[in-house]
């Protein structure tokens, strides 16, 4: 069991709106044990639990042991997330931080979650929580 979460890494799926089960299948096809993210947030705002809390993630090289991985479905290089997704993400991040610490909130990299993701709005909203 992991004791301390240092932060949270935000991703997009770079795909259409798919379930955590579908991403789980994709990741297994790559030879991984299971889905690499801890949570998936669908276009309608539903939060789907994914990888177990018992295990480190497999979503951001060098950060997997200390960072919770959250993936929003969609391709934010081409379109923004839905307002429902952003709202659910803000609530989820606030909840995780109040329970687990997880102070640092980071993008995966420049193109993930993608330039259409409203990073400034999201970071401000999370701070206000
Ligand atoms: Zn990513």
| Count of separate structural domains | 1
Q: Measured on Cα atoms, how large is the radius of gyration? A: 13 Å
Structural class of the secondary structure composition? alpha/beta
Looking at the overall shape, the CATH architecture is 3-Layer(aba) Sandwich
| Count of helical stretches | 3
Q: Which ligands appear in the coordinates? A: zinc ion
Share of residues in helices:
25-40%
- Biggest sheet features: 5 strands, mixed
Give, in order, the helices and strands: EHEEEHEH
C-alpha end-to-end distance: 27 Å
CATH topology: Lysozyme-like
Shape: globular
Q: Kindly estimate the percentage of residues that lie in beta strands according to DSSP.
A: 15-25%
Characterise this structure.
The protein is an alpha/beta fold and 129 residues long. The protein is 29% helix and 21% strand. It contains three helices and five strands. It has helices spanning 20-29, 83-100, 119-128, and strands at residues 5-12, 39-41, 47-49, 67-72, 101-107. A five-stranded mixed β-sheet has the order 3-2-4-1-5, with helices on one face. The chain is globular and about 40 Å long. The N and C termini lie far apart (27 Å). The mean pLDDT is 93.
